[in-house]
Amino acid sequence: MSATAQNTDANAAAGEQELTDGFNLIIDALKLNGLETIYGVPGIPITDFGRMAQASGIRVISFRHEQNAGYAASIAGFLTKKPGICLTVSAPGFLNGLTALAHATTNCFPMILISGSSEREIVDLQQGDYEEMDQLAIAKPLCKAAYRILHAQDIGIGIARAIRSAVSGRPGGVYLDLPAKLFGQVINAEIGRKSLVKVIDAAPAQIPAPDAIKRALDVLKGAKKPLIILGKGAAYAQADDTIRAFVEKSGVPFLPMSMGKGLLPDTHPLCAGAARSTVLKDSDVVMLIGARLNWLLSHGKGKTWGDAPKKFIQIDIEPREMDSNIEIVAPVVGDIGSCVSALLDGMDTMWPAPPVEWTGSVAKKRDENVAKMAPRLMNNNSPMDYHGALGVLRTVIKERPDAILVNEGANTLDLARGIIDIYQPRKRIDVGTWGVMGIGMGYAIAAAIETGKPVLAVEGDSAFGFSGMEVETIARYNLPVCIVIFNNDGIYRGTDVNKGGDDPATTVFVKGARYDKMMEAFGGVGVNATSPDELRRAVNAAMDSGKPTLINAVIDPAAGSESGRIGNLNPQSALSKKK
User: Is the dihedral of CA 159, 161, 167, 172 positive or negative?
Assistant: First the structure.
């Protein structure tokens, strides 16, 4: 056979080969691993990828801003224990998503930020490409792991590494850099299929040492005033039945952190949420389950914790978390489900209940505080104060315990945390470890999509401003989200005065703003509520209908305090103090 004929046959054979490309391999790799929802903002170089992913059956939720898409992906990871996927364009889009990636890492939420990028040869020589940026280098310090995929045949292994990094050990954010040329790379389809990886046992159980379990139980048994603190790590573990059985068998009062609420109902007889100050100050042994002794717990020291000497037991999957602020006398390292199960198995059949003097005093203080608060929650003032409005929402959640509460703001967050009882796990999601504002709409969207449950988003007017344009996204996808904006005309309150000119004070917004009109503009339901009774009717109608709804809850501009309950973190001028 002539060389020409041989070449012709080879070309024909090549032409008959089934081919695939980077677009399809990324989609196939995600679907193979059960990742079938993407949150993002379309644009060059990922526009076609979004279209193709949607056509393949992946649900692609397009946002108005990448940061909000990233927050959605992060909370999707918390709710599902699978990495939430955020997709952005290069450079500015990547940077917009980076805040959410760092937020996910800080909060231990599994998330993968996938961004298109410029080619390495252009970036490295700084030749001025469209949206040129060395994104991998920028992302590395802010996430748990960062990878770049250059060749189509490496897509399967690259996505597998990202998934495993995001969910194994202490979960966190992962960055995946995909240069534009990768998407269009063509390879043999069979070779492509063989290159895909289905991740097996991505987050293997980490069994605690028997000695650690015995030590922890010995310390707990010897306590006269024991306390259990349940953090959001305990909620993430989805070991709900085991945690509840352990708490109830121990008989120890428990204090839930805000996103740990609902593991046991806030109305449970052992819940010490309404006696927080008392139990932190007076306890002698504290067991931390999925909670960290960071600023949210005053680092385990100072006047919050009182003068009584304390012993700390800590359960965490990360060994380096132990002794991060104070001595941990009984560290238990492992995944929370395995650790709590081992503790439960190690308890004696006749485990001694804590002294009744302790449990009785905690219950008495809790009941006193609840009774003291009750009248404030029943007022029908117009304009509303925070307590009257939150009293209404407290009843709404009590009547609809499967609804998901999203909460952010200053006073709106701090007061709601203590007033609104939660009855089921992972039904309260909020600003988390950083206390960052702007999570509201992204969280609300992801919560509705990932769980199918109705969502009640309770927002301060300042916090809502960070992500407010996403009401269009909520309306566009017709999600069962009811947003309640506590509108007091400003940050903290709307009564501040500019003492040096005619401009509004830095903390004051437009007086009498009608946020409800925003939702109406996009075809949803908008309501202006000026009293608790009006608020009650509007929220119940929204939750019953499942229609996208925004309620402008008019709050007295004078209501609220500086920085909610963390005003001590806001430095003041030494000169103003002297005055």
Answer: negative
> What is the average per-residue pLDDT within 17-26?
96
Q: Are residues 352 and 445 in the same domain?
A: no
**Domain region containing 340:** 210-368
**Does the bond joining 210 to the residue before it have cis omega, within 30 degrees of 0?**
no
**Per-residue tokens: 369:** 């505080």
Q: What is the Cα–Cα distance from 18 to 188, expressed in whole angstroms?
A: 6
Opening angle at CA 448, ends 446 and 452, nearest 5? 130
Q: Are residues 327 and 444 in the same domain?
A: no
Listed residue (568, 572, 567, 107) closest to 302, CA to CA: 568
Are 428 and 422 contacting, i.e. CB atoms less than 8 angstroms apart?
A: yes
Instruction: Please report whether residue 10 resides in a domain.
Output: no
In DSSP notation, 96-159 reads: HHHHHHHHHHHHT--EEEEEEE--HHHHHTT---TT---HHHHHGGGSSEEEE--SGGGHHHHH
Distance CA 230, CA 236 (A): 11
Average pLDDT, the chain: 94
Round to whole Å and give the CA distance between 395 and 558.
25
Q: What is the pTM of this model?
A: 0.95
- CA dist 340 and 334 (Å) reads 10
Neighbours of 554 (CB within 10 A): 24
Q: Helix or strand or coil: residue 255?
A: strand
Examine residue 263 and state whether it is found in any structural domain, yes or no. Answer: yes
Residue 13 makes CB contacts below 8 A (sequence gap 6+) with none
Contact 177, 119 (CB under 8 A): no
Please give the DSSP secondary-structure letter assigned to residue 227.
E
261/329 same-domain check: yes
CATH assignment at residue 279: 3.40.50.1220
Q: What is the pLDDT of residues 130-144, one digit of tens each?
A: 888 999 999 999 999
Task: Tell me the CA distances in angstroms from 161 to 149, 158, 165, 300, one per residue in order.
Answer: 11, 5, 6, 36
| pLDDT tens digits for range 467-478 | 999 999 999 999
DSSP string, 416-451: HHHHS---STT-EEESTTTT-S--HHHHHHHHHHHH
Q: How many structural domains compose the chain?
A: 3
216: number of Cβ within 10 Å = 24
Residue 408 sits in a domain of what CATH number?
3.40.50.970
